[in-house]
Amino acid sequence: MTILVTGATGNIGRRVVDGLVGAGQRVRAMVRDLRTARPRLPEGVELVAGDFTRPDTWPDVLAGADRVYLFPYAYYVPESAALGFVEEAAAAGVRRFVVHSAAAAGFAPSDDPSPLGRHLEEERQAHRGLELMAEATGREWTHVRPGLLAVNALGWADRIRAERTVREPYGDSGYPLVHEADVAEIAVAALLTDDHLGAAYTITGPARVTQAEQVTAIGAAIGAPVRFEELTPWQARAQWLADGCPPQVADWLIELLADAVDGPGMLPPTGTYEEITGRPPRTFARWARDHAADFLGEAA
């Protein structure tokens, strides 16, 4: 059995590859650049050059593949390309899709005109659209829907390395951030066993963790205090724009943080990971320890 992993060099995809290799499976990774991908993936993984926007690469990628971990490329490529890849995969003999989706796929449709409302509806449509493509093939499927990922905190890495400081608005804002290892573990189980067929799993961290608490946990992980400096929303927006963030993204990010000041906002913790594995999800403190090297460096 050959298991195809798309998005294999991403934060979750790499852990899916590791889990499958550790289970003794034959793994094929679809990558755009063979040279840069090889150092990032284990020995023994078959690398095949492929691109969701290049149908000419799909036959080599899909030949002999039985199961596919499907990266959420529908969010980035035309719908016709997304549908074409899924349909060709089914025609080539793929009999199981495990879709890397997002919690937004389970949200109700919305016509909220706010920046955050528009963003979430776009995200819902893209991810749910990919799920529906997999379902429409008539093959086996499982949807893995992570909530907000702890790995987004890597966006602070440069400033923490340089200044040991994080500057953000809404220090009391917090979501149940999920460790990418938890998401990958569920995906691997869905690829290897029949226990999760037809399921859509929303995976979160164990508890709400505020931005200020995240910064404290990172400091503990690297053995050096990291300061949280609270900005007003407008100061933060100006900083993000100066850093190259598009204005529309800055607008919905501010609304996302504001939504979770007094609670977990639109995404409370789920017990899904523990229900499946019998273990509590990894904490943000564990994530910070696992990523301590990403934050280490000389302070200014």
UniProtKB/TrEMBL annotation:
It comes from the Bacteria. Residues 7-192 form the NAD(P)-binding domain. Pfam families: NAD_binding_10. PANTHER family: PRESTALK A DIFFERENTIATION PROTEIN A (PTHR43162:SF1), PTHR43162. This is Nucleotide-diphosphate-sugar epimerase.
